[in-house]
Each structure stands twice: as C-alpha cells, then as structure tokens.
Write a structure and sequence with these properties.
By secondary structure, this protein is of the alpha+beta class. It is 17% helix and 31% strand. A five-stranded antiparallel sheet has the order 3-2-1-5-4. The protein binds zinc ion (ZN). Zinc ion binds at residues 22-24, 26, 51, 80, 82, 85, 87. This is TIGR04076 family protein. It comes from Suicoccus acidiformans.
Amino acid sequence: MSEDLFTLYDLKVEVVETGRPFVCSHEVGDYFLVQGENLIFPQTKQFSLYSLAALLPLLPAKQRAYQRNDWMLSDAVIACPDPNCGAGFKITRTKQREFSHAETTVEPIYEGEDL
Ligand SMILES: [Zn+2]
C-alpha cells in the first residue's frame, strides 16, 4: 500500500419514514450516492435543496473512520429540516474507496504529530 493513499467510505443517503407524514416532496426510497467529492443522483426525480443543505455538512464526516464509541457512527438517520415534515434521511456506508493524496490536493502530506 502506498503511503500516499487514504480511505473514505462511499455513502448512500436514502429517504426513510419516521412515522409522521411528509410535508416536502420526498418519496420513500429516493436516494443519492456519495463517492469521494461527488454526489450522484441515479434517479431522475428531484431532491429537496433544503434537505440537501442540512445533509451536506455531515457527509464528509460520515465518509471517515470513527472510534467505536463515537455517536456519529451509531446515529445515521437525519431529520428533515422542516419541523413539520416526518421524512428522515438514512446515511449508509456502502464500501471503502482508496484515494491518492497527490491526486486530491496540491498540499504536502501532514507531517505533524498524530491528532
Ligand atoms: Zn421534508
């Protein structure tokens, strides 16, 4: 294994029911994928921009490894930002993918103390 490689998880973000009716345009089963920096929408349907805005900050964190006790690992269903909407968005790790540091940034590899 090259010392230049690092691993991220591919993600699937899927609309799920939480027991309350939906207010927005979500449909159960709608989903998108996250592979590296890319969002992939295999379906031709729409996806709420408000929901996407709520999900975006979490996706890079969900792509990375955690300690076993970290709540970010166990908590995977994100609520719709509309407080009247019952939709949830389940984030699932689908597989690991390797990336080259040199192919993802022009900055040198961090050489400080382990964080
Ligand atoms: Zn909603």
